[in-house]
Write a structure and sequence with these properties.
InterPro entries: DegT/StrS_aminotransferase, PyrdxlP-dep_Trfase, PyrdxlP-dep_Trfase_major, PyrdxlP-dep_Trfase_small
Number of strands: 14
Oligomer: single chain
Bound molecules: pyridoxal-5'-phosphate
Number of domains: 2
Family: Belongs to the DegT/DnrJ/EryC1 family.
CATH superfamily of the largest domain: Type I PLP-dependent aspartate aminotransferase-like (Major domain)
Radius of gyration: 22 Å
Protein name: dTDP-4-amino-4,6-dideoxygalactose transaminase
Keywords: Pyridoxal phosphate
CATH class of the largest domain: Alpha Beta
Order of helices and strands: HHEHEHEEHEEEEEHHEEEHEHHEH
Largest sheet: 7 strands, mixed
Pfam families: DegT_DnrJ_EryC1
CATH topology of the largest domain: Aspartate Aminotransferase, domain 2
Strand content: 5-15%
């Protein structure tokens, strides 16, 4: 095959067109925001100022719960706080251990540390990048209280196995579903398969209001505790100045709820587009020697396709340097990126853990480390909202660069 000059060497880039701008919004966002502004009810408490106005937060929470077949949705300021509150409501106490994967956003572990709980890293599966359930049992101690699987990039973790292990050891399960709005495992929506599920509505997520978060649960009692922790220790039925526990004010605003309600009307269509593009991209990447796509467990009944992650094949990493590869593909007009550094290697996490435990524990997570250093590549969430041609461009750029090694 004829070798084309790479863009880094002055050749013509495969793609010049931009990828879609994010967020996508229109008149509905404007209209709903205006309703909130004019109502004068901007905050997140249950106080109603006007009889003509129906508060948007309860409506949004109801719709979010319904979308995930969950009994309760509690809105909070962000996805990080959602995890901290869920851990606390689930009975995790300072000093307790919480099992988390190392290949995730820092919030998964930082949320535990924020409450004085100790993150214990259990490595991921090489072919899915998700928490490896078979390695969980070996990390359980008498201080373990919870498992926090992450539905990374929109792919549900193996919830059947994780719930089984948790039940056997009487542990709580908190699903970090920040990247997986609308995803499902064996027909059950993520978020309420464990004791709690937490979501982020931060700008980069598939459903966003700039900032925000949601806690889901099917457990009535846990829902009340979580709600109380986010509402300065009040109870839903109690008096205004009755505070039954120490909680914080973690409420979202009506303005944010208005944006989420508008964005929700666009979600299903965007999910279908993401699905179609991810499927096509997978087909195209499968044909490229030296590239490995992620394995999808057939029990994943819906993938949220938040980010698109794939790998340089292990057999090729002697020839292909990941950093060099990214630079060359970027020059072809395709925004692939490096992705996470495993959290077991993050110094701030290691130091905070040392302060809490007084121990100098170093976790070896060889799969996460090798994949992060040498193999895993990411495409941002807006890429999957582009057209079919864009998927062909992504594959063509990767093929072109691979051939140059
Ligand atoms: C975004 C994200 C969070 C944190 O959400 P924020 O709303 O930014 O606090 C937590 N976990 C994962 C996996 C995320 O991607």
């Amino acid at each position: 095959m004829e070798k084309l000059a790479l863009a880094v060497d002055g050749g013509t880039p495969v793609r010049i067109d931009e990828f879609p701008k994010w967020p996508i919004f229109g008149q509905l966002e404007e209209q709903l925001i205006l309703e909130v502004v004019r109502s004068g009810k901007w905050g997140g408490t249950g106080v109603v100022h006007s009889l003509e106005y129906t508060p948007k937060l309860p409506e949004m929470e109801h719709k979010f719960a319904e979308l995930h077949q969950a009994a309760h949705a509690i809105s909070v300021v962000n996805g990080t706080v959602a995890i901290t509150v869920a851990l606390q409501a689930a009975g995790v106490r300072p000093g307790d251990e919480v099992i988390v994967p190392p290949y995730t956003f820092i919030a998964t572990a930082a949320a535990a540390l924020a409450y004085g709980a100790v993150p214990v890293f259990v490595d991921i599966e090489e072919d899915t990048l998700l928490l490896d359930p078979e390695k969980v049992s070996g990390a359980i101690t008498s201080r373990t209280k919870a498992i926090v699987p992450v539905h990374l990039a929109g792919a549900p973790a193996n919830m059947s196995r994780i719930n089984e292990i948790a039940a056997a050891h009487k542990l709580r399960v908190i699903e970090d579903a920040a990247q997986a709005v609308g995803a499902s495992w064996e027909g059950r929506s993520v978020g309420a398969i464990g004791d709690f599920g937490t979501f982020s509505l931060q700008s980069s997520k598939n459903l966003n209001s700039g900032e925000g978060g949601i806690i889901l649960t099917n457990n009535d009692e846990l829902a009340e505790i979580a709600w109380s922790l986010c509402n300065v220790g009040r109870s839903r039925t109690g008096a205004w100045y009755q505070h039954d526990r120490i909680g914080q004010n973690y409420r979202m605003t009506e303005l944010q709820a208005a944006i989420v309600l508008a964005q929700m009307t666009r979600l299903e269509e965007q999910m279908q587009l993401r699905e179609k593009n991810a499927k096509l991209l997978t087909e195209l990447l499968c044909r490229i020697e030296g590239i490995e796509v992620l394995k999808l467990d057939p029990r994943i009944t819906r993938h949220a396709n938040h980010l698109y992650m794939f790998r340089i094949a292990s057999a090729m990493t002697d020839q292909i340097d990941k950093t060099d590869f990214i630079r060359k593909v970027n020059a072809e007009g395709i925004p692939i990126s490096h992705g996470y550094v495993p959290l077991n290697r993050n110094e701030a996490i290691v130091n905070a853990t040392r302060v809490l435990t007084g121990e100098d524990k170093v976790y070896a997570c060889p799969v996460s480390e090798r994949l992060s250093d040498k193999e895993v590549l990411w495409l941002g969430q807006n890429v999957l909202l582009a057209d079919e041609q864009a998927m062909h461009d992504v594959a063509a750029a990767i093929q072109k660069v691979i051939q140059s090694y």
